[in-house]
Amino acid sequence: MFLNLFNQEEKENFLELVYKIANLDGNYDEDEKELINNYKIELSISDIPDTTNIETLIKFFSEKSEQIQKIVWFELYAVIMADDVVAVEETKIINLVKNYFTISEDSISNIQDLAKDLKKVYERIYNYIF
């Protein structure tokens, strides 16, 4: 949604990060694939980089502005919730991001609520149309 604010390095690192997180639980389902494909289109990147590990990517974004961290947190949470299941591995990543990022717990909570609300709105629109 706000990924156009990222520079090229941030775009590539973001795509790599969300792809790796989507595959964490070993269940890369259709909703996650669709979300990743939408990111690829939005970011104008056809190939997903595979250059580093998840923790290094999280550290990279932890050194960015609060605004960038909020965008990343929103999108990561959306990826984790795409299949409506939060696996143990995903919970570990959530905690790792919380440890590295400098945004407040209130901001994290608000972002998560907004992501859930947006998902519900998209589901309502989809169900109404189809």
Q: What is this entry, summarized?
A:
This protein has 130 residues and is mostly helical. The chain is built from six helices and no strands. Helices cover 71% and strands 0% of the residues.
Lay out the secondary structure.
Layout: H1 8-22, H2 30-43, H3 54-62, H4 66-81, H5 88-100, H6 105-129
Helix pairs in contact: 1-2, 1-3, 1-4, 3-5, 4-6
CATH top level label: Mainly Alpha
Strand content: under 5%
Number of strands: 0
Tell me which CATH architecture applies here: Orthogonal Bundle
Helix content: over 70%
| SSE pattern, N- to C-terminal | HHHHHH
From the 3D structure, determine the CATH topology. Answer: TerB-like
Return the structural class.
Answer: mainly alpha
Residue-averaged pLDDT: 91
What does it look like?
This is Tellurite resistance protein TerB. Helix content is 71%, strand content 0%. It has 130 residues and is mostly helical. Helix 1 packs antiparallel against helix 2 (30-43). It is globular and about 40 Å long. The two termini are 23 Å apart.
Question: Which terms summarize this structure?
Answer:
Tellurite resistance protein TerB, 6 helices, mainly alpha, 130 residues, TerB-like, single chain
